[in-house]
Every structure is written in C-alpha cells, then in structure tokens.
Amino acid sequence: MIENKLEQTLNKDTVIVICGPTASGKSSLAVSLAIYLHNMNILPEGAEIVSADSMQIYRKLDIGTAKITAADSSGIRHHMIDICEPHEYYSVAQYKREATAVIRDIQARNKIAIVCGGTGQYLSALIDGIEFVETPVDLNLRDKLSKRADEEGLASMLMELQTQDPETAARLSISDRKRIIRAHEIIVSTGKTPTEINRESRQKGPDFKFKAYCLSPDRELLYERINMRTSSMLKQGWIEETKQVIESGIPTTSTSMQAIGYRQIIAYLNGDNSLDEATSEIQQATRRYAKRQLTWFRKMPQLKWLETADQDSALKLILADLALNL
User: Fold this and answer.
1) Domains contained in the chain, CATH given
2) Which residues have a Cβ under 8 Å from the Cβ of 310 and sit 6 or more positions away?
C-alpha cells in the first residue's frame, strides 16, 4: 500500500516541489497533496505551502496574480505571499534567503514543506542551492558604459564580451542592451566574469532534499485554460483592482505594474486600446509566458514530469513516486 510506504519513508527533511506553467493547476494540486498528508497523519503537524511566484509576493495584487483564496486554501497555511508592497524591489537572492528560512521553520515545527509556483528563477535558486554572490551596483560606472554603448555600439561591446566571457555572450543577443552593459559592469567592478560568479554561487549545493514535479498538460488544453481564466479574472474585478493600486500612488513604471495583464489594463484605462483588445493581448502574452516557463523547466533535470491535466491522476503519480523513491 502506498500509504504504508509513505508512513515509513516520508519525513519533514524532504521538500516537495510542485511547479508548472501558469493555469496548469499546480496551486490546487499542492493543496490537495497537503490535505492528503494531513489526513494520513504521516507527520503530527501535516504540511504547509511555500509560494514560488514572483508576482504573488506583492500585496494588493490579488486577482491579477491568481492568488489562492482562503476558501480554496482549505485551511492550509501558505507562505511567501503578500510580503512586500507593489512599489518595492525584490530580488531572487532575497527570495532564496527568505524562502530557505521559511522552509527551515516549517521543518522545525515537524511539518513537510511543499514549494509551489511557476517562477523558474526562484525554483532554480532553491533546488540548485545557489548562494548569490553580491555584485556591487556602480551607477557612475553604469552611466559610463551606457554612454560607451551609444558611442561604440552594442555589437562592439558584445564582441568584447565574447572574448572575456564566451558563455555569457552566447546567451545574449545584440538587442540585450541592459544585460550586455550589466555584464561589463560586473567584470569591471569585481574582476570576475558573470560565468565565474555563477559557478561560485553553485559550489555549495542545495540546502534540502528535494522531490520536484512539473505539471505539463496538453498545450491546447493549457491555452484554453489560460483564455478562460483571463476572462474570469476580468469578471472578478481585475480592472477595478488595477485602478485601486494606481490610485494608491503606485507608479505604473513599478516592476509589479509591468506584469502580464496589469500593463494591458493600464493601457486600456489610458484609452490606448479597447477592452476586447486588452483581453486578447493578455491571453496571448500569458500563453507566451507559459511557453517560456516550460522552456525553463525543461532545463531543470531534477524535475519529474506529470503529463496530465487531471488533478487526481497527478496526485496519485506524486504519491506513488514518493513512496517508491524516498
């Protein structure tokens, strides 16, 4: 029996990860898993969920980031949601540090941590155990490099970068002005290339034992879900939510306001497009984002893929794998 094997093998030192593209159903699957573990009494205190979503960290952005509601959470405690204001900057390094502390606290209380989300950088930081090396930001140097880019052209700077750091250069295109300038800034200010810093950051390894799963439903079904969810979110009051955030004084140039959906709604509110056009643009941008998410996840060898759209089937696959492979 799977239940007996889980009772024998699953413990609080294992961190379960459930990821996938937007609208794949990962949040409800994580809640279902947490409820199952709680009802099984595998651990005295059950499980809690740690969000890995770079937009759900912002307060006030509820509908547009598809935050789980109190009713849908079924009493399962969620962490790393509503932890900063929409105008604040929040880095991957901050997420790694704070999520790690949250996971340790969950484990200290004899519970299992379930990490759930779709932000690839957040998930990679945890699963790969990246220790972020602080690289200084020199605005004067950045200004000089920006002027150099204007005078010499990005092609020249990228060619120079190909000699200094071919791995980083290979990931950049001639249109990546910000990243090309930042790469040169790092080299000048630290004496190390971005590739060298990246390798140093991965030397320590992960802080936890991870069992990671990625939902990958049929593409047509996923896109249909995205389209339907967009319409549903607009009916729930997404436009009014955006208005309230703007009226609260949050600049429309903030990172949070550049998220998919909010920027299209802002354009609609400014009279730059119709509601139908905004809706179509949100759906298209979200579909493209889902494709990018899947591309990122395919580069993570630690993930086990769940190619099903059925929640019960996905839950059974996870439980079976946990019972067999822990």
Assistant:
1) 2-130+204-325 (3.40.50.300), 139-201 (1.10.20.140)
2) none
